[in-house]
Amino acid sequence: MSIRTSTLALMPWLLAAALAVNAPTSLAQPVEGTDYKKLVPPQPTDSPGKIEVIEFFSYGCPHCNAFYPLINAWAAKLPKDVVFKRVAVSFNRPQWINLARAYYALQATGELPALDGALFHALHAENLKLFDEPSLASWVGSHGGKAEQFTQAYTSFGVNSQTVQADQLAERYLIDAIPALAVNGTYLAIADSTHGQDVYFTELIAHTDALIARVRSETAARSARKEPEATGKAK
Question: φ and ψ at 33, to 5 degrees?
Fold first, then answer.
């Protein structure tokens, strides 16, 4: 579902959340080309020993705004062997570059949990034009954050590097539309957008669940193949 060409109408958040959380999740074997794309070559992850799921998103994306409560509810229930990460991307759009910087600045100052959803709401429900550092810092200050610390982080080398690296990561993962979910550097979940945004989101999460199960199964199979050798050495 392309953020550039999609004309899907946004569904109310609560309706979409209910559909995603309450819909039955099928863990049938995912089908390549329909449920996922395989990344060649696989990408390294930052979570050794865990199954890493990455959400690529932007505060400026209306679909990411609608997806936000669903993915939060899903991520809150993930098992301990799964690590969930978010990567704010820009597709080289100047306003989105600044919003990506805002995400990493809020992360650096520790204010992301308090202001994450509020920033989505400000942009998409209140239609505030928070697309540069002064307006973003002012907004952070007016919502209980520390504007000065935000500005220092926003303009820092570290946040600039994270913003650049996020877009580079999206290129390596072949991300051309968001929100997008990638599993363990190997699989990119996909879904059918022709039945509407709410069904698309539900399928995207279901396919991600199936891919997590697949990675878990593949890891167990590799461990089983190594077990006889390890047992032999122990003797």
Answer: 90, -20
Q: Is the peptide bond before 228 cis (omega within 30 degrees of 0)?
A: no
Q: pLDDT tens digits for 56-101?
A: 999 999 999 999 999 999 999 999 999 999 999 999 999 999 999 9
Alpha helices by DSSP H, the chain? 13-22, 62-75, 94-109, 112-124, 133-142, 147-154, 157-172, 197-234
3-state secondary structure of 8: coil
- Compute and round to an integer the Cα radius of gyration of the chain: 19
Tokens matching residue 124? 């998409």
**Measured distance CA(98)–CA(106) in Å, rounded:** 12
Question: pLDDT tens digit string along 167-223?
Answer: 999 999 999 999 999 999 999 999 998 989 999 999 999 999 999 999 999 988 888
**Which of 113, 107, 127 shows the shortest CA–CA distance to 65?**
127
d(Cα 100, Cα 159) in Å, to the nearest integer?
9
Question: What would the two tokens of residue 57 be?
Answer: 């998103």
Per the structure block, which two tokens stand in for 62? 């209306």
Contact 114, 145 (CB under 8 A): yes
What is the separation of C-alpha 91 from the centre of its chain, rounded to a whole number of angstroms? 15
User: Residues with Cβ < 8 Å from 176, sequence gap 6 or more?
Assistant: 2
Residues 6+ apart with CB under 8 A from 22: none
